[in-house]
Write a structure and sequence with these properties.
single chain, about 80 residues, two-stranded antiparallel ribbon, 8 strands, elongated
Length: about 80
């Protein structure tokens, strides 16, 4: 959790913001502060709070064999 504290010129507290950050492992993304597996047709190659990437859709619709894929190479034609 990250805290952001701001003071004015008289060193009086203006506000405090608490930001919860979630770092999910490969193959998972943050959904409402909980790590969940990437859905079928999506993958995530690095840990972090970013969303899963969708498999390429052109010129063929690519998908994954299951959820939680960790590599773009998990995407294949018509699984």
């Amino acid at each position: 959790m990250m805290h952001i504290v701001t003071y004015n010129h008289q060193q009086e507290l203006i506000f405090v913001v608490y930001v919860k950050t979630v770092t999910c492992p490969m193959g998972q993304e943050d959904k409402n502060d909980t790590c969940v597996a990437c859905a079928v047709g999506y993958y995530k190659e690095a840990a972090g709070s970013t969303a899963c990437d969708q498999c390429p859709q052109t010129p063929f619709a690519l998908t994954t064999a299951g959820d939680g894929s960790t590599l773009a190479t998990d995407c294949a034609i018509g699984m």
